[in-house]
Each structure stands twice: as C-alpha cells, then as structure tokens.
C-alpha cells in the first residue's frame, strides 16, 4: 500500500495566491536586497559614533588629568594660611611652589623678579582647586 501520487505537475504551488514570491516563469523576478551594502553602511555609522564618543571621553580624561596634576601641585605647595572656599589665590614658584593671597600686580615688579607666577586658582567646596584666568574676571571670582 503505497501512497497515491498526486496528479499535480512538478513545480506548481498548491495555493499560488498565498505565496510571497512568484510561482511561474512569467512572475516578476525576485531581487535580493543589498545586505552587504547595508551592513557596511551601518558598520561605518556605528564606527563613526564610537570614534566620536572615544574622542569626547579622551578629551574629558585629559582635562581631568590636567586638573588632577595642578591640584596635586597646589596641595603640595607651601601655604601659611587656611584657604577660604571660593576665594582666588595665586601660585608662585621661587625654587619651590607656594600659594599667596596677593596677585602679581599686588606684589609689584621688584618682588616678582625672583619669582615665577604659575597661575590663579580658587578652592571649591569639595576641596578641589579650579584654575582661573588671570587677570581675574568678576565672573570667575
């Protein structure tokens, strides 16, 4: 007892209207989408975004490292007073670093001949020193 063969010819769909593709020679050609081009475009876009984010993080890292270096320098500098939060102070070097309340203009040219002005800084509430442009603007101070 074998199954009886169908009288249907080969390569003919049982229900051709439900097929997502053509079922005879005169049907429209099936064109596959360019998946490789799509993948390359998406990969290039993703790579560009990752590279831009990397550059942003690298800039932030460099900024943080610079701030950490001058914070370390200020913490190790000689100081003869307790700094007040939010007040601008001045870092000088005369063989070793020291912090002063006086700006280079207040010291005068004679005193500054043997000293190098390094920069203006203020200490923030989290005990981190922030570099300030010199001469100090009202906005910075």
Helix and strand topology:
Blueprint: H1 35-76, E1 88-93, E2 97-100, H2 104-107, H3 109-112, E3 116-123, E4 129-132
Antiparallel strand pairs: 1-2, 1-3, 3-4
Count of β-strands: 4
Overall outline: rod-shaped
Lateral strand order in the biggest sheet: 2-1-3-4
Indicate the percent of residues in helices.
25-40%
Describe the sheet with the most strands: 4 strands, antiparallel
Which structural class is indicated by helix and strand composition? Answer: alpha+beta
Mean pLDDT reading = 84
In DSSP terms, counting alpha (H) and pi (I) runs of 4 or more, how many helices? 3
Tell me the series of helices and strands, N- to C-terminal.
HEEHHEE
- Which oligomeric state applies? single chain
In the predicted model, the low-confidence regions spanning at least 5 consecutive residues are: none
**What fraction strand?**
15-25%
Radius of gyration: 37 Å
Terminus-to-terminus distance: 101 Å
